[in-house]
Structures are given as structure tokens and as C-alpha cells.
Design goal:
Blueprint lengths: L1 H34 L9 H10 L5 E3 L2 E3 L1 H24 L9 H20 L4 H21 L5 E3 L5 E3 L7 H32 L4 H25 L7 H33 L14
Antiparallel strand pairs: 1-2, 3-4
Helix pairs in contact: 2-7, 3-5, 4-5, 4-8, 5-8, 6-7, 6-8, 7-8
């Protein structure tokens, strides 16, 4: 009897789940029919994609200067993170207890994740790189999720558009890659002198690979979302799912990848070089 009850409950749950999905699909189809025919497009899909990469037309005014939308996004994300850091330091950290609460557990887990990564990949002087990959990782994750807010800003041509993720601009991605490489180069020079700096300089392609990895991953999500939004037959409910999934995946993956690469190359740069001892063999 109990098994039969369990089976009936599972069947009822399956029917409810299936009904919800069918109702959702029906609502999407109804919305597509109601929104058809598509409205007038001011730009072709080619122009939309091109401007998403180069930002030639949709410039924004920043104190009288025409800048890319990504620059305004970067400043806003930086201000948000600085304010959050100050508030956490003043109001939250002094109240931390031996038995952590929920917020304290989240903060400690986040700090511990990057600290463990730094200690695992860099056995010498891991504290500095741990602090750096923590700040860089939090910035990448937050700035990637920033585009989900959909904050509107007027362009110089009078068109309102949502601010993109800062790192979807190639300039921001290059800046992040160059800054990470500078950290590694400086650590190699301080710990190993000329030989340490020379060892880091051999990996001259590192900032390029870091920059284009960030730029390509975040730009792909932006272009896919723009493509889905452009066609009205796909622009009902679906962009929300596509945008959120792409953004979350890129935020997590790119944060982990950059933090891992920086900690590994930093560990190689600061690792003490063992002196080679030449053993002279006695001639027989």
C-alpha cells in the first residue's frame, strides 16, 4: 500500500511538472503571435554585432568625453565594490564570531577559496597573490553579472541602451591581462632578481592569452544575447534564460580560470631557483 502511494505521488508530480512546462511553452507561443509582425529595426543584425565589438556608433558621454559604454560600467562596478568593502569592514567584520553566521560563512568561504588556491599553486609568498586573485576574481564575477541589471544610459546619439559588462570591452580585458602579468613580473623580479624577471619575460604571450580569453568569453555571451533579442520570434522569455545562463557560466568560469592561471605563473616566478652543483667525476 505504501509503495502504491509513493508511486501515485511520483506520477502526480511528473504530471504537474509536465503541465507547468507545457503551459510555459504555450505562453511563449502566444507571446510570439501577439508580438508578430516585428517592429521596425534601426540597425541590421550585422551592424548590431559589429557595434557590440568595436563600439563605433553607440558612444556615451562621460564629463563631456565620448567613451565606450564599458568604461562607464567599469567605474560603476568599481564604486559598488568599494562601497560594499567599506560597509563590510565597518559594520560586518567587527561583529564576526567564533561560530559564524550565514553572512560570515559566505565571506570566509570566499576568502578561503582564493587563499587555498594561492597556497596550492604558490608555495612561496602566497599571501600577496591570494589577495590579488581575490580582488581580481570578485571584480570579474561582479562585473560579469553587472549586465544582468540592465541599467539604461543615453548614448551621444540620443538612444537609450543597457550598460554592458566592462570586460566585454577589449580595452578592459587587455588592462586586466596586462595588470596580472605586471604582478607576476614584479614578483619574479623581487624574488629572483634579473633571472626571475627574465623567466617571466619568456612568457610574453601570457597577457595576450589572458586578455583575449576574457574578452572572447564575455563577448560571445553578449553577441548571443543580442542575436536572440534582435529577432522578435525569439525575443519573448528566451533572452532571459539565455542571458542569465551565459552570464552565470562566464562569471564562474572566467573567475576560476584567471585566478588559477595567475596563481600558477606567480608560483613559478617566485619559486627559489636551486643552484646547480657540478660534480666532477674522478678519472679512472
Amino acid at each position: 500500500m505504501e509503495r502504491d502511494k509513493v508511486k501515485t505521488k511520483e506520477k502526480s508530480r511528473k504530471y504537474i511538472f509536465l503541465t507547468v512546462w507545457l503551459a510555459l511553452i504555450a505562453l511563449i507561443l502566444v507571446g510570439i503571435l501577439l508580438l508578430w509582425p516585428p517592429g521596425e529595426k534601426h540597425e541590421t543584425i550585422k551592424e548590431v554585432m559589429k557595434d557590440g565589438v568595436l563600439h563605433e556608433h553607440n558612444k556615451m558621454s562621460f564629463f563631456g568625453l565620448e567613451v565606450n559604454p564599458g568604461l562607464i560600467s567599469a567605474y560603476m562596478v568599481t564604486v559598488i565594490l568599494l562601497i560594499a568593502a567599506v560597509l563590510i569592514r565597518i559594520f560586518a567584520i567587527p561583529k564576526f564570531k567564533t561560530v559564524p553566521g550565514k553572512f560570515q560563512s559566505v565571506i570566509e568561504m570566499l576568502v578561503g577559496f582564493f587563499s587555498d588556491m594561492a597556497h596550492a599553486n604558490s608555495h612561496h609568498k602566497p599571501r600577496f597573490v591570494g589577495a590579488y586573485i581575490f580582488s581580481a576574481g570578485v571584480y570579474i564575477f561582479t562585473s560579469t553579472l553587472f549586465e544582468l541589471l540592465g541599467i539604461q544610459w543615453m548614448t551621444t546619439s540620443g538612444v537609450s541602451m543597457a550598460l554592458p559588462a566592462p570586460l566585454s570591452d577589449i580595452n578592459a580585458a587587455i588592462a586586466m591581462g596586462v595588470m596580472s602579468y605586471t604582478i607576476i613580473l614584479g614578483a619574479g623580479m623581487i624574488c629572483g632578481g634579473f633571472r626571475g624577471a627574465l623567466g617571466v619575460l619568456k612568457d610574453f604571450s601570457l597577457p595576450i592569452s589572458m586578455s583575449f580569453r576574457l574578452f572572447g568569453a564575455l563577448l560571445s555571451g553578449l553577441l548571443v544575447t543580442e542575436l536572440v533579442y534582435y529577432y522578435v520570434s525569439l525575443s519573448f522569455v528566451l533572452p532571459v534564460i539565455v542571458g542569465v545562463l551565459f552570464t552565470l557560466i562566464h562569471a564562474v568560469v572566467q573567475t576560476y580560470v584567471l585566478a588559477t592561471l595567475v596563481s600558477i605563473f606567480y608560483g613559478e616566478a617566485v619559486e627559489p631557483k636551486s643552484k646547480k652543483v657540478k660534480n666532477k667525476k674522478a678519472k679512472r
